[in-house]
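User: Please fill in residues for this 342-position structure.
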């Protein structure tokens, strides 16, 4: 999704340091769940949130990203631990069987252990923030965790809610996902003691909104973009489906609802759902919303003095924009196959 993370070597050393902090904490504990958390952490991940924190600190200050001091690395590791905690909890709530192409913790060890692993990791994250000694950051982390829980609650309360508004969807992804991106960027700016911390927080929020819509578009159905991860099966409605439901009239809306409720996600059924979303503007509307947030993120970054970090942040925006174009193209091709089969 974000090719620039593979192209740039300048951040590799600091991400390795961030990983070392996480694994050091988890490896020093005798608690069973710490070992399970370390196993899950080693399964991979983009480490996008800690990268955004380090880049934001560099963009707002004068040091190079490769010179990130230890307290900043600890804060970046804390963000990644919080993200890891949410994955453990999400897997239980959503009954996820696999994570990053491997069996999820709840499948291997059970729901109770997975919940405890998430709780353990979350507590270690907060201890790490406190240990960093960076002033005023712990309240920011605590507020964000409260918002994350609120977003998770809101999402679960709207499973299979075919009357859900777009505003509610945006509230869900703002709280559940974009808030952690905003935290990463704002705390980076705070660490640099910059007057741009709030600006960076807004940039992070816009990136997080776009990122979650992109992720939801990937995971809406198994087949269009080949992710084999169908959120709709579990009752989570992505923006294209919400937009289509609000646009369909007469019996067509009822037909789509029954199609989703029936849960027969064969290739033919998925093509029909994707085609309805595409023909009634859901895919294009989602593309436009992603573009809107990416544009706002880019404008915020452009307000900062140019340096290596701002260039990298703009490249992340460009990568997300390019990936979205490939997503939309993938849906068009997938829907085209349905049209040809009629």
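Assistant: Residues filled in for all 342 positions:
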């Amino acid at each position: 999704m974000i090719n620039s993370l593979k192209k740039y070597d300048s951040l590799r050393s600091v991400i390795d340091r961030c990983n070392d902090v996480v694994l050091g904490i988890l490896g020093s504990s005798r608690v069973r769940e710490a070992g399970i958390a370390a196993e899950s952490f080693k399964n991979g991940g983009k480490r996008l949130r800690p990268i955004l924190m380090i880049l934001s600190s560099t963009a707002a200050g004068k040091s190079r990203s490769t010179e990130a001091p230890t307290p900043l690395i600890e804060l970046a590791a804390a963000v990644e631990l919080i993200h890891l905690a949410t994955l453990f909890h999400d897997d239980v709530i959503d009954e996820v069987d696999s994570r990053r192409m491997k069996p999820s913790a709840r499948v291997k060890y059970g729901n109770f252990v997975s919940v405890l692993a998430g709780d353990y990791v979350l507590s270690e994250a907060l201890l790490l923030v406190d240990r960093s000694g960076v002033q005023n950051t712990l309240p920011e982390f605590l507020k964000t965790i409260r918002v994350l829980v609120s977003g998770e609650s809101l999402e679960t309360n709207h499973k299979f809610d075919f009357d859900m508004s777009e505003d509610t969807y945006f509230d869900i992804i703002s709280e559940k996902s974009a808030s952690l991106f905003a935290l990463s960027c704002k705390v980076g700016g705070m660490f640099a003691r910059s007057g741009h911390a709030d600006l960076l927080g807004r940039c992070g929020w816009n990136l997080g909104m776009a990122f979650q819509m992109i992720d939801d578009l990937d995971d809406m159905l198994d087949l269009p973009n080949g992710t084999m991860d169908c959120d709709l099966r579990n009752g989570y409605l992505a923006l294209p489906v919400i937009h289509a439901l609000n646009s369909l009239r007469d019996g067509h809306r009822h037909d789509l609802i029954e199609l989703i409720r029936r849960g027969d996600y064969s290739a033919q059924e998925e093509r029909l759902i994707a085609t309805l979303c595409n023909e009634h503007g859901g895919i294009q509307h989602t593309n436009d919303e992603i573009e809107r947030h990416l544009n706002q993120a880019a404008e915020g970054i452009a307000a900062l003095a140019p340096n290596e970090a701002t260039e990298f942040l703009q490249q992340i925006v460009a990568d997300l924009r390019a990936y979205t174009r490939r997503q939309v193209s993938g849906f068009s091709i997938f829907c085209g196959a349905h049209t040809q089969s009629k």
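For context: The chain has a mean pLDDT of 91.
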